[in-house]
Amino acid sequence: MNKAIISFVISTFIGFGLGYLVFGVIMGDSDKQPQVAQTEETSKSENQNKEAEKETAAVDANNILNSKGCLGCHAVDSLGLEGGATGPDLSKAFTDVEGKHGKSIDDFLKEPTSAVMSSVIGGNPLTDEERTQVLDMLKQASEK
Fold first, then answer.
1. Taking all residues of the chain, what is their mean pLDDT, rounded to a whole number?
2. Which of 9, 65, 120, 141 is the most exposed place for a label (fewest CB within 10 A)?
3. If DSSP states are collapsed to H, E and C, what string results for the chain?
Protein backbone atom coordinates (compact mmCIF):
# COMPACT_ATOMS: atom_id res chain seq x y z
CA MET A 1 0.00 0.00 0.00
CA ASN A 2 2.77 2.44 0.93
CA LYS A 3 4.63 1.76 -2.33
CA ALA A 4 1.49 2.54 -4.30
CA ILE A 5 0.99 5.85 -2.50
CA ILE A 6 4.64 6.81 -2.87
CA SER A 7 4.54 5.90 -6.59
CA PHE A 8 1.40 7.98 -7.06
CA VAL A 9 2.90 11.03 -5.29
CA ILE A 10 6.14 10.80 -7.26
CA SER A 11 4.26 10.37 -10.56
CA THR A 12 2.11 13.38 -9.74
CA PHE A 13 5.11 15.59 -9.05
CA ILE A 14 6.86 14.42 -12.20
CA GLY A 15 3.70 15.05 -14.25
CA PHE A 16 3.19 18.56 -12.91
CA GLY A 17 6.90 19.28 -13.25
CA LEU A 18 6.91 18.23 -16.90
CA GLY A 19 3.70 20.18 -17.51
CA TYR A 20 5.26 23.29 -16.00
CA LEU A 21 8.42 22.80 -18.02
CA VAL A 22 6.61 22.30 -21.32
CA PHE A 23 3.79 24.81 -20.96
CA GLY A 24 5.40 27.37 -18.68
CA VAL A 25 9.01 27.48 -19.75
CA ILE A 26 9.22 26.22 -23.32
CA MET A 27 5.92 27.50 -24.74
CA GLY A 28 5.82 30.61 -22.55
CA ASP A 29 9.16 31.91 -23.85
CA SER A 30 8.08 31.90 -27.48
CA ASP A 31 8.55 35.35 -29.04
CA LYS A 32 6.67 34.33 -32.17
CA GLN A 33 3.05 35.39 -32.17
CA PRO A 34 0.55 34.70 -34.90
CA GLN A 35 -0.09 37.57 -37.25
CA VAL A 36 -3.30 38.35 -39.09
CA ALA A 37 -2.80 38.89 -42.80
CA GLN A 38 -3.75 42.43 -43.81
CA THR A 39 -5.08 43.34 -47.21
CA GLU A 40 -5.08 46.72 -48.91
CA GLU A 41 -8.54 46.31 -50.37
CA THR A 42 -10.63 49.31 -49.46
CA SER A 43 -14.04 48.02 -50.52
CA LYS A 44 -14.69 44.97 -48.34
CA SER A 45 -18.21 43.74 -47.95
CA GLU A 46 -19.76 43.73 -44.49
CA ASN A 47 -19.41 39.93 -44.25
CA GLN A 48 -15.71 40.12 -45.03
CA ASN A 49 -15.25 42.70 -42.27
CA LYS A 50 -17.04 40.46 -39.79
CA GLU A 51 -14.86 37.51 -40.78
CA ALA A 52 -11.73 39.63 -40.33
CA GLU A 53 -12.90 40.71 -36.87
CA LYS A 54 -13.60 37.10 -35.92
CA GLU A 55 -10.15 36.06 -37.16
CA THR A 56 -8.51 38.90 -35.21
CA ALA A 57 -10.41 37.90 -32.07
CA ALA A 58 -9.21 34.32 -32.49
CA VAL A 59 -5.60 35.47 -32.93
CA ASP A 60 -5.82 37.71 -29.85
CA ALA A 61 -7.34 34.87 -27.84
CA ASN A 62 -4.67 32.53 -29.10
CA ASN A 63 -1.94 34.92 -28.00
CA ILE A 64 -2.88 35.11 -24.30
CA LEU A 65 -4.40 31.63 -24.01
CA ASN A 66 -1.47 30.01 -25.79
CA SER A 67 1.23 32.04 -24.04
CA LYS A 68 -0.17 31.08 -20.64
CA GLY A 69 -0.47 27.41 -21.66
CA CYS A 70 -4.30 27.28 -21.45
CA LEU A 71 -4.62 25.69 -24.89
CA GLY A 72 -2.43 22.81 -23.77
CA CYS A 73 -5.41 21.38 -21.89
CA HIS A 74 -8.43 23.42 -23.05
CA ALA A 75 -10.05 24.29 -26.37
CA VAL A 76 -12.30 27.29 -27.12
CA ASP A 77 -14.51 25.98 -29.90
CA SER A 78 -16.63 29.12 -30.19
CA LEU A 79 -13.49 31.11 -31.12
CA GLY A 80 -12.17 28.34 -33.37
CA LEU A 81 -9.25 27.61 -31.05
CA GLU A 82 -8.20 23.99 -30.92
CA GLY A 83 -6.45 22.84 -27.80
CA GLY A 84 -6.06 19.91 -25.51
CA ALA A 85 -8.87 17.61 -24.52
CA THR A 86 -7.77 17.15 -20.91
CA GLY A 87 -9.71 20.15 -19.60
CA PRO A 88 -13.21 21.27 -20.52
CA ASP A 89 -13.94 23.52 -23.49
CA LEU A 90 -13.81 27.15 -22.31
CA SER A 91 -16.48 28.49 -24.69
CA LYS A 92 -19.02 28.89 -21.86
CA ALA A 93 -16.60 29.26 -18.94
CA PHE A 94 -17.40 32.96 -18.54
CA THR A 95 -20.96 32.10 -17.48
CA ASP A 96 -20.56 28.54 -16.16
CA VAL A 97 -17.68 28.83 -13.67
CA GLU A 98 -19.72 30.47 -10.93
CA GLY A 99 -22.24 27.62 -10.94
CA LYS A 100 -19.51 24.98 -10.91
CA HIS A 101 -17.05 26.54 -8.48
CA GLY A 102 -19.11 28.98 -6.40
CA LYS A 103 -17.21 32.11 -7.43
CA SER A 104 -17.02 34.44 -10.41
CA ILE A 105 -14.59 33.66 -13.23
CA ASP A 106 -12.48 36.67 -12.20
CA ASP A 107 -12.17 35.37 -8.62
CA PHE A 108 -11.59 31.83 -9.90
CA LEU A 109 -8.66 33.03 -12.03
CA LYS A 110 -7.20 34.77 -8.98
CA GLU A 111 -7.74 31.80 -6.63
CA PRO A 112 -8.98 28.61 -8.31
CA THR A 113 -11.00 26.17 -6.24
CA SER A 114 -10.15 23.06 -8.28
CA ALA A 115 -7.03 21.13 -7.32
CA VAL A 116 -5.63 20.98 -10.86
CA MET A 117 -6.15 24.66 -11.65
CA SER A 118 -4.82 25.68 -8.22
CA SER A 119 -1.52 24.00 -9.01
CA VAL A 120 -1.41 25.32 -12.59
CA ILE A 121 -2.24 28.94 -11.78
CA GLY A 122 -0.37 28.83 -8.47
CA GLY A 123 2.84 27.99 -10.33
CA ASN A 124 2.29 30.68 -12.96
CA PRO A 125 -0.20 33.30 -11.67
CA LEU A 126 -1.87 35.72 -14.05
CA THR A 127 -1.10 39.42 -13.80
CA ASP A 128 -4.07 41.80 -13.63
CA GLU A 129 -3.58 42.65 -17.31
CA GLU A 130 -3.37 38.99 -18.35
CA ARG A 131 -6.46 38.15 -16.31
CA THR A 132 -8.34 41.00 -18.01
CA GLN A 133 -7.27 39.70 -21.44
CA VAL A 134 -8.38 36.16 -20.58
CA LEU A 135 -11.70 37.46 -19.22
CA ASP A 136 -12.29 39.49 -22.40
CA MET A 137 -11.60 36.43 -24.57
CA LEU A 138 -13.84 34.16 -22.47
CA LYS A 139 -16.61 36.78 -22.54
CA GLN A 140 -16.33 36.94 -26.36
CA ALA A 141 -16.40 33.15 -26.51
CA SER A 142 -19.57 32.96 -24.40
CA GLU A 143 -21.38 35.47 -26.65
CA LYS A 144 -20.89 33.40 -29.83
1. 77
2. 9
3. CHHHHHHHHHHHHHHHHHHHHHHHHHCCCCCCCCCCCCCCCCCCCHHHHHHHHHHHHHHHHHHHHHHCCHHHCCCEHHHCECCCCCCCCCCCHHHHHHHHHCCCHHHHHHCCCCHHHHHHHHHCCCCHHHHHHHHHHHHHHHCC
